[in-house]
Amino acid sequence: MNEFANSFGDPHALEAHYAKLNAEIRIRPDASDEPFRYEERIAFNDDVLLLRTMSHTSYTVDVRTAADAYVVSIPLEGRMTWHVEGECRRGEMNLVSDLKLIKGARIEAGTSTSNVVFSSHALHSDLARLLGAPCHKRLKFERNSGLKRDDALALYHTAYALAGGLSNSTATMPSPITIGYLRQALSTILLQGCRHNFSDQLRSVASGVMPVRIKRAMDYLYANAESPIMLADIAESVSLTVRGLQVGFLRHQGMSPMAFLRKIRLERAREDLLDPDIRANANRLACAGSL
User: Is 167's pLDDT higher than 50?
Assistant: First the structure.
């Protein structure tokens, strides 16, 4: 994991710095005649970025484009306001959001934050690991969703351990294996601590060791749920007899394979009904069809 300490006295230099992190931002200090000062400690690898910031200047930031990632921002001191999905969210509470939904922020002088940024690929991979099945839709956190105090503290201290310390310490960096486990611990805290469109499915995941062929059959059902599927198709895909498949599902899922398929389809239909974008498109199509 790479770790750096940076200090910026020019807003344009800070904009260029974030451009290297795949984010296009514009910074507007409150007073052009006052010196700009921003400090950060940053540690990152391909999956996660850990960032602790200290702003000595009041300014507004406009986000033009953002990386394909998710952020958890924990306020440490000061005041700030986020602009997310057309809403203003006060920075006294921790923020959990898809970076693509953040349009800007207002930061007061003396504001410090601790931030964990997950790459979209890594977070969806960890979600699939927890679900025991692939994710068929993009992860969406509920509006005003945030971590409870204990979960936020757990995430903060886990991030500190992962970075080997974001303060001026001589702590040694974790080994690659430890980094992997700590990063998964971070994503687990987030995915289990915040409400999102997979929360109900995550809570209903059966515990215990899943036989490989039953797990593969579940993957087959998730991947092909939109297509006509016969019981024999599922059994053939994992080289099991129909009876062996049924017994395995009853033992480890508490239902038959076809009942499990119906459950997947109902979950997806429910998510579509709750998705405002899909609902709006359906309404537009209905209106168009009535013309």
Answer: no
